[in-house]
Amino acid sequence: MQWIVRFELPNGGPGPATVASDDLAAEFDAVVVLLLRDHYCQVSRERASAYSDAFGQFAAEDVAVVGALSDTEERAGYWRKRYDLDYPVLADSSEGPSAAEADAGAATAMTDGTPRFDAFSDIELGVDTLPGIGVLDTRSKYPRLVHSEGGETLQECPTPEEALDAALEAIA
Asked: Could you tell me if 65 and 166 are in contact, meaning their C-beta atoms sit under 8 angstroms apart?
């Protein structure tokens, strides 16, 4: 099943103050959403920089890249400046259930307590751990989630090359 994923989120990275799925769909055939864990996650920092280094390869294939943090716009801006990222870094957070609610059966996004995503919650559900990716096919009226991937461990997050291959395969 393919989920519709629409968003308009504050951007801490380069580009407009907010980034909307409709705007990306008008320009690109697909969007790779890189779900980042947090500032303390070395793998997230390394992946964020690697995706920035490969930004031109994505653009050449009409595939957009956006990073997403389950955090504030200020933290997203910090990521952009600290790691000199070439793509938008979107702030997408949801408080999620309390620990007591989680014990009562309401699942948190990640078992280690990593904050939940809101607009990207459907992508988050498709990955075992963060960082991870989601591929949105933006060629139809609404962006559809056609691929999500995250490894069983932090180190298994797809490389930029693997993400670009997954996006091109999904829209082929």
From this structure: no
Per-residue pLDDT tens digits for 47-97: 999 999 999 999 999 999 999 999 889 999 999 999 999 999 999 987 544
β partners of residue 145: 3, 136
Tokens 């380069």 belong to 14
Strand partners, 94: 116
Given a contact cutoff of 8 angstroms between Cβ atoms, the answer to whether 123 and 146 are in contact is no
Count of CA atoms in the C-beta half-sphere (13 A) of 82: 14
E strand or H helix at 77: helix 73-83
pTM for this prediction: 0.87
Query: Length of the chain, please?
Result: 172
Of 151, 156, 154, the C-alpha closest to 128 is 151
Q: In whole angstroms, what is the distance from residue 65 CA to residue 30 CA?
A: 9
β-strands 8-10, 18-20: how paired?
antiparallel
d(CA 143, CA 124): 16
> Tokens at residue 4, please?
């519709």
